[in-house]
Amino acid sequence: MTLSFGPIQSLGLAATVLCTLPNAALAQTPSTDPSGDTPFNSMAIARDQTDECRVPKPPADLAETAYLRNGYRAILRILIAEEALASESCSCLLDQFSWDQALDALPRFQTSDHPRLPFKVLDLYAQADALEAQIVEACAK
Questions:
Q1: What is the C-alpha to C-alpha distance for residues 16 and 21, in angstroms, rounded to an integer?
Q2: What distance lies between CA 11 and its chain's CA centroid?
Q3: Residues 87-139: tens digit of each pLDDT
Q4: b/e for 68-106, b at 16 or more Cβ within 10 A?
Q5: Which of 16, 102, 117, 132 could bond to 76 as cystine, CB 3.0-4.6 Å?
Q6: 3-state secondary structure of 120
């Protein structure tokens, strides 16, 4: 009579695998904590920094695509920065502006008649960054 340990070994291997699965899942849980050790394969996006005077992400119903929403956000940044420079104000002017003003200012920043690509977002970002840098420099004096 011969004894076979094959089924017992398979059962032991299956139990070992099942016991380690929860630990493996916990090790790969994504985190939105930007200071934590986030796994490389994580798709979690860190939250925006909490700056009271930073133009927030636009509402989803402002425009149908993220490209347009990002453009309107840059336009609003430009409008706020231009007003701060014109008034020589170092205080936050964000509460004096609305998303409607960014929409109304579109013709000024429009570079194309294409409805889905009416402007160049990267150019708008560069312009907003430059204006905001001027404000920082002027207010540092």
A1: 9
A2: 47
A3: 999 999 999 999 999 999 999 999 999 989 999 999 999 999 999 999 999 99
A4: bbbbbbbbbbbbbbbebeeeeeeeebbeeeebeebeeee
A5: 102
A6: coil
The tens digit of pLDDT for each residue in 10-66 reads: 556 566 655 555 555 555 555 555 555 555 555 555 555 557 889 999 999 999 999
Q: Is the separation of the CB atoms in 141 and 90 below 8 Å?
A: no
Here the tokens at position 57 are 């992400």
